[in-house]
Write a structure and sequence with these properties.
66% of the residues lie in helices and 5% in strands. The chain has 385 residues and is mainly α. It folds into two domains: 231 residues, no CATH class; 128 residues, 3-Layer(aba) Sandwich (D-Maltodextrin-Binding Protein, domain 2).
Length: 385
C-alpha cells in the first residue's frame, strides 16, 4: 500500500512543485533580495595618534590600539603624528580616526585630576572605527580605576611609593584588549542559512500533507470501507499513509538542505546530526497532518486546513524572518516544530552533534506524541457523519 501510494505521489507533479521547485525558487529570490543584509564586518581602520614622549600611560593607550593591528576581526593601522596635524589628517580623509593625548596625561591620571583625550572620528570610520573608539573608552576607564585604587590606598595609609605601584598596576596591569574572529553561538544561523532552513521547514508541512491526507481521499472515493474490510489491522492503513509522508518529507527536506548548502554556501554541520533533526521534524509534522485528516470532511477542507497550519507555523517559526516573543508567548513559540527544526540546524551548524540536540529533539518528539494522542481522541469524521 505504501509503495503504491508513493508511486502515485511521485507521478503527481504538484508534489514535486510544492516539495522542491517552489521552495528552491523562493530561496533563490530571497537570497537575491536579502543578499546585502548579511552581518556587516568591520573594515580596516587607520588611526593617527599623537602622544607626549616619555609618558608611560600615554604610551600604554597607544600601544593598546597597536595591539589591534594583529586582530583578524578589526584590522587597525596606527600612525604616529603631531598633535596639530591630527585634525587635518582626519578631515582630509588620510586617516579614519585621530587620537590626541595631551601633555601631562600620565601625571594627571596619577593625581586624579581631570584630563581630556581628544578623539576625532572621520566620516568613513564605520564599524571598525566604533570598535576602536570603544577600546579607547575602555582604556580610559581602566586608567580611572587606577586613580580610584590609589585614592583608596592613600586612605589606607600606603606610602607614596606603594601608591604609585598600586595605581600603575591597576591602570596598566593584566591582559590588554584582544579581539578575535569567532563563530556564531549555537542555535544561531546566518541570514542565508536561516533562509534555507526556514523554507525547508515551511514546505515540509506541505510535503507531508500529500501522504497522510490521502486518508481523506480514500474516504471520499469510497475505498476506505474496502480497505477496512481486508483481513488486516485497520491501523496499518493509517501507518501506510504516514509512511508515505515520512518518505516524502525526509527525501524532500534532504534535497532542499543539500541544494541550499551548495547554492548559497552554507554548512549545517554533521550529516548524522542533521539527519536526526530532519527525521524528528518529519515525524512531528506528519503527526499534525494526522489530526487534519481525522477532522476534515473533504479534500478541500483538508487542503485549506493544512495550508493555514503550514503558513501559521512557518511564519511564527521564522521561515521568512526571525520571530521571538516575551514570556509565555515566547515559550509557546518555542514549541513550534518549524522553530525547533531551525534551532536544531543552528546547533548542528555551530558544530554540535546528536548529543547536543536534546532540547529541539525533545520539543519535536513531544509535539508528535501530543498530536498522535489528539488524533486518537478526536472522533473520525467518517464515523460522525
Amino acid at each position: 500500500m505504501t509503495w503504491t501510494d508513493l508511486r502515485q505521489r511521485v507521478r503527481d507533479r504538484s508534489v514535486l512543485v510544492f516539495a522542491i521547485v517552489v521552495p528552491l525558487a523562493l530561496m533563490t529570490v530571497f537570497n537575491f533580495v536579502f543578499a546585502d543584509l548579511e552581518q556587516p564586518t568591520p573594515g580596516p581602520v587607520t588611526v593617527a595618534a599623537a602622544a607626549p614622549e616619555g609618558d608611560p600611560l600615554a604610551a600604554v593607550l597607544v600601544d593598546t590600539l597597536r595591539g589591534l593591528e594583529e586582530s583578524a576581526a578589526v584590522p587597525v593601522t596606527v600612525e604616529t603624528a603631531e598633535a596639530e596635524a591630527v585634525p587635518e589628517a582626519v578631515e582630509s580623509g588620510e586617516v579614519d580616526l585621530g587620537l590626541v593625548v595631551p601633555e601631562g596625561f600620565g601625571a594627571a591620571v596619577r593625581a586624579g585630576e581631570p584630563v581630556s583625550v581628544e578623539a576625532i572620528e572621520g566620516e568613513d570610520a564605520g564599524i571598525g572605527g566604533q570598535v576602536v573608539m570603544a577600546v579607547v573608552h575602555a582604556s580610559l576607564e581602566r586608567f580611572a580605576a587606577g586613580t580610584v585604587a590609589a585614592t583608596a590606598g592613600a586612605q589606607a595609609g600606603l606610602s607614596p611609593g606603594e601608591l604609585a605601584a598600586v595605581a600603575e598596576e591597576a591602570a596598566t596591569g593584566g591582559p590588554q584588549h584582544t579581539l578575535v574572529a569567532g563563530e556564531a553561538a549555537d542555535e544561531q544561523l546566518g541570514p542565508s542559512a536561516s533562509m534555507v532552513a526556514g523554507q525547508a521547514g515551511l514546505f515540509l508541512l506541505f510535503t507531508v500533507s500529500f501522504g497522510v491526507l490521502g486518508l481523506v481521499a480514500e474516504r471520499k472515493q469510497g475505498t476506505m470501507a474496502r480497505l477496512r474490510s481486508m483481513p488486516m489491522n485497520p491501523a496499518l492503513i493509517v501507518l501506510a499513509k504516514a509512511m508515505v509522508s515520512l518518505v516524502l518529507g525526509i527525501v524532500a527536506t534532504t534535497v532542499l538542505l543539500t541544494a541550499g548548502s551548495l547554492l548559497f554556501g552554507v554548512d549545517f554541520g554533521s550529516p548524522v546530526a542533521v539527519a536526526a533533526v530532519i527525521v524528528a521534524a518529519v515525524v512531528a509534522t506528519t503527526s499534525l497532518m494526522l489530526v487534519v485528516a481525522r477532522v476534515a470532511r473533504s479534500e478541500e477542507q483538508a487542503g485549506i486546513a493544512s495550508s493555514i497550519l503550514a503558513l501559521v507555523l512557518g511564519i511564527s517559526g521564522g521561515a521568512f524572518f526571525p520571530v521571538s516573543g516575551p514570556g509565555l508567548l515566547g515559550q509557546l513559540m518555542d514549541l513550534n516544530p518549524v522553530a525547533a527544526f531551525t534551532r536544531g540546524l543552528g546547533i548542528t551548524a555551530g558544530g554540535g552533534g546528536v548529543a547536543d540536540l536534546g532540547a529541539p529533539l525533545l520539543v519535536l518528539a513531544g509535539f508528535a506524541v501530543v498530536m498522535v494522542l489528539v488524533a486518537r481522541l478526536v472522533p473520525d469524521r467518517e464515523e460522525t457523519v
